[in-house]
Amino acid sequence: MQPHELSLAAAADAIRDRRLSPLELVDSVLDRIEKTEPHLGAYVTVAAEQARRAAGEAEHELAQGRYRGPLHGIPMGLKDLIDVGGMATTASSRVRADHRATADSTVAARLSAAGAVLLGKTHTHEFAFGLTTPQTRNAWDLGRVAGGSSGGSAVAVASGSATFALGTDTGGSIRVPAALNGVVGLKPTYGLVPRHGVTSLSWSLDHVGPITRTVEDAALVLTALAGHDPRDPASLSVPVADYRPGAGTDLTGLRIGLPRTYYFDNVHPQVEAAVRQAIGQLEALGAQLIEVDIPMTRYIQATQWGLMVPEAGAYHEGSLRTVPGLYQEDVRILLEASELMSAGDYVRAQRSRTLMRAEWARMLEEVDVIAAPSVPMPAVGADQETVTWPDGTTESVSDAYVRLNAPANITGVPALTVPVGHDAAGLPIGMQLLGRPLGEPTLLRVGHAYEQTQPARALATAA
Amino acid sequence: MSAVELTPPEAARWAARAGLELPAERHAAVAAVANHIHSVVSVLRELDFADAPPAAAYHAGQEKRDAAA
């Protein structure tokens, strides 16, 4: 096995035990990037020399007896909405052509302090306002979408071009590309991971979180990221915690909510079958399945749009007037149309969120976790714009990918996507686990238990 | 087109009221997207909000200590 194929946890063990040097690992991943990038296009920028220099410093520290923890010397990619001092944060947009960040974002600073090595910045759907990331190709099939908006991060991790990466998630932008590329994605509880220095799509829906090859890896990254920062007004004051899940797979006593409504409606049959089989595996580990009715489903999309569209329009108000022609057409027209929404639309969406949060809190008193598909269908062809379901309804690809993700953004509950197999064409399928606010330890425990019952997953093979 | 949908000239006028001058060739497309967004978000008018306040958080003069999310 080459170093670039190692999970974060395995690489961390090898580095700690001095069986692998940070420089060997970083060189292996950089070699992999050279092979994959011409086909996948996951990165906006690769900072190879900077990465080698940082790996050399990590090695030097180890030689001096200083070990920073499991991220020491681990190479990672950051979605290009995340500021790194001295580098451009392009948001994959011409609008940001001349940008240069003056300081690290909170998450970049925390990862750096934990010893992680930055490989480069990964592609996003422009300003995170879309679900496909057209610059990047799916790690399993070059003719299919990467998913988005954190498409570059998910493809890099799936292909071995980063040992882990960060994404952002406003309506599924961590979970969608993670699911479509067969990797793990965690959208933490709203406010658990500070967003200072991260370009916003929609302040009240934005989250930052890890994209990794295993659930255990996601826990290791979350441990470095979580914690209060007063510069993010939504940041929660929570004690520092070690999120690494225990080794046990016994889920006796855990109550898993199986949605009777919404999450299995208009879902591809192979996705439904794979997710139900995985849920059966959780039951076999001792969990109790309890059917639940998802509340207020008629108002999910309306609430998501009522919050996201005006907030995005507000963020871009200035540049939409000065440089409108620099936006891609799909983003520009949404920003323009956002200006025609009323204040009443926005306030109704905020009041709907109040009701929805309360209803979800009631539902999550009955169960510990909800298990569901992450997205209704695997990665679609790059040119596909709509999907037609057996009941005759037609849905845009973007709406379909957001549909099962938006509830966790609206309510702020944590949500984890875990790979649970492939369809007949070999495309990955993800299961979504949703928990109570700050219920990350439970989600990670369940996801880790599931992964231990499955064979280790190989890297994606399209590049 | 229903009576509540914006025509392209109306979309241009509303945008202008918001301080955004739209080039003439964009009026029709912006009107269509704005009407679609309106059709999605207007279902929220069905809800009985009673006394439910907007969810936006606001903590005057003190750091948040609760774990509400």
Could you please describe the fold and organization of this structure?
The complex is a heterodimer of chains A (463) and B (69). Chain A is α/β, with parallel strands linked by helices. Chain A has one domain (11-299, 343-452): Alpha-Beta Complex (Amidase signature (AS) enzymes). Chain A has 15 helices and 13 strands. Chain A has helices spanning 8-16, 22-40, 48-63, 106-113, 151-159, 175-180, 215-225, 269-284, 300-315, 317-322, 329-338, 343-366, 397-403, 406-411, 440-452, and strands at residues 43-46, 75-79, 117-122, 164-168, 184-187, 208-212, 255-259, 288-292, 369-373, 386-388, 394-396, 415-422, 428-435. An 11-stranded mixed beta sheet of chain A has the order 1-3-2-4-6-5-12-13-9-7-8, sandwiched between helices. In chain A, α7 (215-225) packs antiparallel against α15. The longest helix of chain A has 24 residues, at 343-366. The model of chain A has no long low-confidence stretch (mean pLDDT 98). With 69 residues, chain B is mostly helical. Chain B has a domain at 8-46. Chain B is 36% helix and 0% strand. Chain B contains 2 helices and no strands. Chain B has helices at residues 8-17, 27-41. In chain B, α1 (8-17) packs across α2. The model of chain B is unreliable at 64-69 (pLDDT under 50). Chain A binds chain B through residues 189-192, 204, 230, 233-238, 298-299, 301-303, 305-306, 309, 320-321, 333-334, 336-341, 345, 347-355, 357, 411-413, 437-438, and chain B through 6, 11, 14-15, 18-20, 22, 26, 29-30, 33-34, 37-38, 40-47, 49, 52-57, 63-65, 67-69.
Helical stretch count of chain A?
Answer: 15
| Most residues in contact: chain pair | A-B, 46 and 36 residues
Work out the helicity level of chain B.
25-40%
CATH architecture assignment name of chain A: Alpha-Beta Complex
